Amino acid sequence: MQWYFVAALLTILTSSQGILTTLSQSNGGYKYDYATVPFLAEVFKLLVSSFLLWREFRAPTPPRMTTEWKSVRLYPIPSIIYLIHNNVQFATLTYVDTSTYQIMGNLKIVTTGILFRLFLRRKLSNLQWMAIVLLAVGTTTSQVKGCGEASCDSLFSAPLQGYMLGILSACLSALAGVYTEYLMKKNNDSLYWQNVQLYTFGAIFNMARLLLDDFRSGFENGPWWQRLLHGYGLTTWMVVLNLGSTGLLVSWLMKYADNIVKVYSTSMAMLLTMVLSIYLFNFRPTLQLFLGIVICMMSLHMYFAPPSVLVDFPETVKALPESLHEVSIDRSMEASNQRNEASQYMIILCIANIPNSEKLNRATEKAARVDCPYWLHGVNPRIARLLDCDLVRLVLATSTGL
């Protein structure tokens, strides 16, 4: 399954969440306890993951599973972060209006990129950083109302505490996503085994939240398990299935893609929801919405398109293999009849994947025996052909023969 197919499916499901939730309302309210929806979604994800893990056990090669406590104890942490995030979210909304909160929520796009770099050590190019900032600008632009709107006066007029809590909320959301990606990629365990651990703790924490709500209300409506399915209809079950399926797709992206792909999927889903609302709920489109969509499309193209599509590189640069992280070449020739003399070339190649010291020493000795003024190691044959340099090909032969 290709990541872009999963990302597109995630965009569609995420965009339909708000629509299905709105359709599940009755007379502007909910007949069911909406706090039970996340719990049932966690149970759904747990059941699906358990079934898929059972199928893996029936395969000739059993799945890899790490059962040591030092590994299992890491899986409640995302649930704890999300629990703190939800409380900070409610606290933020006591200070700022909904429009301001939605706009500030776009900070998680940039904070995800920062944490992605700091904690996962994933390097982003300058072009990708520009694309991430553009995505935040585009989503913010689409949410800004015109200054003729009545709500425009209240935009960004909240006290300082509200903005600080909003920034904290964005950071917590990004931290939970980045940490989950770290968990999914820290070993080669089965995706479904990792999901079982995540969703088990997720169900436990959601159950604890329902119990806490009961204690706060003094069990006015009875214990949560008695009203678990009260008021549920077809659209409510569709919300549960949608939320659960979205979580499964996100875990797949965390395992086989990364957080940035998820951020783009959810951002595009927000724009798609706005467009669909025009036809479903008589939502009035604004110039800012269309401008935001254009900016986000530019950002999407900048981040995922190959550099050769964005910049007119020479053909020699386009041919560089992806395994080389950085290549710098400076050659000089005094005359064309001296082309085969290696001493006339100043060649520098910086590569990331350096062989171990033993192979490096043996390559050095062989290069010294043939009296090479400049020697290289680990060079890809395509680079050797690109440089048209006998010296590179000679050292390549000595290195690859180790």
UniProtKB/TrEMBL annotation:
Keyword terms: Membrane, Signal, Transmembrane, Transmembrane helix
Keyword Transmembrane helix: yes
Family the UniProt entry places it in: Belongs to the nucleotide-sugar transporter family. CMP-Sialate:CMP antiporter (TC 2.A.7.12) subfamily.
Organism name: Stephania japonica
Localization, UniProt: Membrane
Keyword Transport tagged: no
Chain ranges passing through the membrane: 34-54, 74-95, 101-120, 127-144, 164-184, 196-212, 232-254, 261-281, 287-305
Pfam families reported for this sequence: Nuc_sug_transp
Protein's name according to its UniProt entry: CMP-sialic acid transporter 1
Superkingdom of the source species: Eukaryota
Membrane topology: Multi-pass membrane protein
Gene Ontology annotations for the cellular component aspect, listed alphabetically: Golgi membrane
Residues in the signal sequence: 1-18
A GO term, aspect molecular function: pyrimidine nucleotide-sugar transmembrane transporter activity
